[in-house]
Amino acid sequence: MMQEIMLRKMLPAVLLPLACLAQTHNTGDPKPLRLAIAGLVHSHVDGFLRGATKRSDVQIAGVFEPDAAIQHKYAEKYKLAGALFFTDLNAMLDSVKPEAVATFTSTYDHPVIVEACANRHIPVMMEKPLAVSLDHARAIQRAAGRAEIAVVVNYETTWYRSHAAMWELIKEQRAGGEIRKMVAMDGHQGPKEIGVPPEFFSWLTDPVKNGAGALFDFGCYGANLMTWMLDNQRPISVTAMTHRFKPQIYPRVDDEAAILVEYPKAQGIIQASWNWPFNRKDFEVYGERAYAIATGGNTLRVRLPGQPDEEMRGKLADRPLDERDSISYLTAVARGKLKPSGLSSLENNMIVTEILEAARESAQSGKTIRIR
User: Fold this and answer.
1) CB 303 within 8 Å of CB 315
2) pLDDT at position 372
């Protein structure tokens, strides 16, 4: 009990009063967000639609997907009217005039979606990572800058309470001093092993459409979090190695990647894998005098100077209403209440792309890639 009281003194805002445990959605705007969906081949759309169709603050105004069979699958599953579906992206945008677009295409197709949205001054969100290459990322950046539209990159880990609590402890309270080491461990047993749908599997295991295999699919999480914790600092160098432990399943892409990211005063280690025995999204930060270890979204282990290791489970403060999930955040961005920042920002994710491209080059060449 005494240890928890001591930790509460260090973490006044990251512990959640029991009376505030219930989550609510932001209902300050009188009308639901008119949202269009571009693409249905990224299976994260399943969870997105599951949440969106149960909310009163968002309206699915239109869906672009060229494949009629995939259209039918989601129309049936979520009781979406046939009139919502389009096989032409530009026709959908011009017809339904959405306030924002959520993108679930292959990563390779992100620039096409952003360009179409930029031409109509519509803010756009895409699933991580931002792009398959720096050339694609720069094309997105140019289109967004020309039209002055917001671009949001969505990661599941952005909305974790554990990461918000870690930020407050390490960055705002500076409880651990300067960051010296970060370790990110992300992935699962493999796309086939967990049963992703065929339309997702086909491009996720394509080195052109995905950029790589596990290297891009899960390496982006660690690069995103490390860039955030170091205030968008670009690294000095990147060294990576990849493996193909299951070539019979993944003949064209890596299923295992290890990335070493060197900063002027810190080191980052990213372990991206389709070979974990279980799903994991864990992030560890070690400072000069303390550490914080986030295990999933709701658990944070902390060791502070002069104190034993403490685990905070189910006691972390909720995030602000507009920052609890991707729909709430996109709504706030589309209506001018927030500008994309931190983990969701284009600035952060340009650096993420730089790290991933350098890691791919390093793995192919066997050499360390200097960034500066």
Assistant:
1) no
2) 77
Of the pLDDT bands very low, low, confident and very high (cuts 50, 70, 90), residue 249 is very high
Long-range contacts of 43-46 (CB under 8 A, 24+ apart): 43/196, 43/197, 43/200, 44/104, 44/127, 44/154, 45/74, 45/104, 46/74, 46/77
Query: Tokens 């500076």 — which residue?
Result: 174
Please name which of 311, 227, 303 lies closest in space to residue 15, comparing C-alpha atoms.
311
- How many CA within 13 A on the CB side of residue 244? 13
Mean per-residue pLDDT for 115-139? 98
3-state helix, strand, coil in the chain (%, to 5): 40, 20, 40
Which CATH homologous superfamily contains domain 33-156? NAD(P)-binding Rossmann-like Domain (3.40.50.720)
Q: Do 163 and 282 contact (CB within 8 A), yes or no?
A: no
Question: How much is the mean pLDDT over the chain?
Answer: 93
Backbone angles phi, psi at 25, to 5 degrees: -95, 155
Cα distance between the two ends of the chain: 49
Higher pLDDT, 99 or 27: 99
124-127 vs 151-154, strand pairing mode: parallel
User: Residue 50: helix, strand or coil by DSSP?
Assistant: helix
> Encoding tokens for residue 159?
């909305």
DSSP string for residues in 250-292: -SSS-SEEEEEEE-SS-EEEEEEES--SS-EEEEEEEESS-EE
Helix (H) or strand (E) holding 185: strand 179-187
Domain-wise residue ranges, the chain: 33-156, 157-320+345-370
36 CB-near residues (< 8 Å, 6+ apart): 60, 61, 62, 63, 64, 92, 93, 96, 98, 100, 101, 102
pLDDT confidence of residue 28? 53
Structure tokens at 182: 């970060």
User: Could you read off the pLDDT of 1-30 as tens digits, one per residue?
Assistant: 323 433 444 454 444 432 333 334 544 557
Q: What would be the CATH architecture of the domain defined by 157-320+345-370?
A: 2-Layer Sandwich (3.30)
pTM of the model: 0.92
pLDDT tens-digit map of 219-229: 999 999 999 99
Listed range (150-154, 281-285, 312-316) with the worst mean pLDDT? 312-316
